[in-house]
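Q: Predict the bound structure with uracil.
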Amino acid sequence: MAIITLMSKLETLKMLQELYIYRSFGFTYYKKREIMPQKSNISIPNSLDELKKSVHGCFLCTLCKTRKNVVFGEGNPHAKLMFIGEGPGACEDAQGRPFVGNAGILLTKMIENVLNLKRNDVYIANIVKCRPPGNRVPIPEEANMCKPYIFKQIEIVSPQIIVALGGTSYHYLTGDDRGITKVRGEILEYKNAKLIPTFHPSYLLRNESCKKEAYHDLLKVKALL
Ligand code: URA
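A: Predicted complex:
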């Protein structure tokens, strides 16, 4: 359609004439449908409420087919501190809320017991908003489709400190391929905030001995707040 509007009437007639000729030879054609809108056509709202509505109606990647609920993120819309995980697990998918399973219980303890904050004081979100089946790591196509949403959440909430939970979150936020054991505890300049990568709470549940390092990372966060 767009192509035809750009063409002069004469060109259109010539093209139709050719199509008629092909059809008389027995060719058929189908109308190509645009399933994936071009990036430039997607407008991203500038308020959390509007953004949430957009994300709830998102069908940009195949995770929309298997999700029960979109997990947009939650917390203080003016939080100084933002935690960014990888993507929802089964509990999060069921409830439509981030970090509400076992990893979430640990994250909440870290917020309350180490940072002396309430969970409601901070903002919690994920790189991808829909659960990857079987809790697999989100693939680049999924993360890249979803990234404009987390970038907009960061822009709107405008935190002073962002904690990337785990290597996947850190990698998709920064593009840096270094593993989490290399980068954890570093204080990096990121957008208008400090970014501190640390271990993912799920990893800490499986590797208790790393809790000590995560504790030290959180002390750095506390000192910066
Ligand atoms: N793991 C994540 O990365 N995010 C959640 O919301 C839950 C578990």
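A: The domain at 3-26+44-224 is CATH 3.40.470.10 (Uracil-DNA Glycosylase, subunit E).
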